[in-house]
Amino acid sequence: MNELVVETDGLTKRYGDRLAVDRVSMTVMRGEVYGFLGPNGAGKTTTLRMMLGLIRPTAGSASVLGLPAGRPEVTERIGALIEGPGFYPYLNGRDNLRTMARYQGLPATEVDRVLEMVDLTDRAKDALKGYSLGMKQRLGVAAAMLGSPDLLVLDEPTNGLDPAGMADMRSLVVSLAAAGQTVILSSHILAEVQEICDRVGVINDGRLLRESTVAELRGGATLRVRATPEDAALAALMRIAGDEGVRRIGNETLEVDLPATDAPEIVRHLVAHSIDVHEVTVAERSLEDVFFEMTGTTTPGEELVS
Ligand SMILES: Nc1ncnc2c1ncn2[C@@H]1O[C@H](COP(=O)(O)OP(=O)(O)OP(=O)(O)O)[C@@H](O)[C@H]1O
Fold first, then answer.
1. Residues with CB under 6 A from ligand 1
2. Residue (of 198, 196, 192) closest to 217 by Cα position
3. 3-state secondary structure 198-238
4. CATH code reported for the domain at 4-217
5. pLDDT in tens, 230-252
6. Among 2.60.120.10, 2.30.29.30, 3.30.70.100, 3.40.50.10240, what is the CATH number of 220-283?
7. Which residue CA neighbors atom 24 of ligand 1 most closely?
8. What is the ipTM metric for this complex?
9. Half-sphere exposure of 217 (CA within 13 A, CB side)
């Protein structure tokens, strides 16, 4: 357990004056879905390309499966879908994968296995030009899964997909993770990362701002209490949560930094002080709120619209 699959140390890439990746030190553990999150141009693809050994770092290092990135014995244990899959349009799905499998010295049964995994067995005999973008992306994941790689790297796998295609891709990643596959998934879609990732690295302007579990990043939930008279409620709640643990947020409502399990105690306490409790709700911060606080800029989602 807790085996390191990827470790980067001060990983840096400079293009002329542009520092695309700036001293990134990140870790990915075996069996987790790691969300690499950041707005467009943040440095996600450049970092992944260094991990895959496709480009050389200007400084720092990346090790994958305990060996320096780029070594052939490492590269062959990574499956990647990066910048859209390249297929032969006139071949069908199965023959496209067979060509790749043959090149890698893998048997035809391996093609059937990965087709089944991405739920394309029924359409495997159709020519690729009839595939939707979502199907092509799924075939791309199937190609990346040939030979059962130890690490699967998916760069923006839902980019350009319609909502149904996105949901499809998300459930595919979840099913691969359930089967024990280690996945690095880059995305600028916060809700997506929140839904399917165990841990997240947030990158902005080439720098890794934070690396933690999604739950840690979002912080604990808070309680919102609407009670009157408000001043008396504030004083009473401060005795439980401390002066810093309670804030007024308007509409006779107070925000309290206590877990949801404390709600009954809070209500009892207020009622014992003759305070009327009108409503108690649990407020969870979304990853989007957190991202906004961390970068102080627009969320990646908003950038998409521009
Ligand atoms: N080959 C290159 N030559 C020059 N600059 C580059 C090159 N590749 C990337 N960059 C620059 O490095 C920065 C990071 O780019 P990168 O593609 O890694 O970001 P990203 O987070 O993957 O963004 P996106 O979500 O748009 O794919 C950008 O400013 C980009 O313009």
1. 15, 18, 20, 38, 40-46, 188
2. 198
3. CEEEEEECCEEEEEEEHHHHHCCCEEEEEEECHHHHHHHHH
4. 3.40.50.300
5. 999 999 999 999 999 999 998 89
6. 3.30.70.100
7. 40
8. 0.95
9. 26
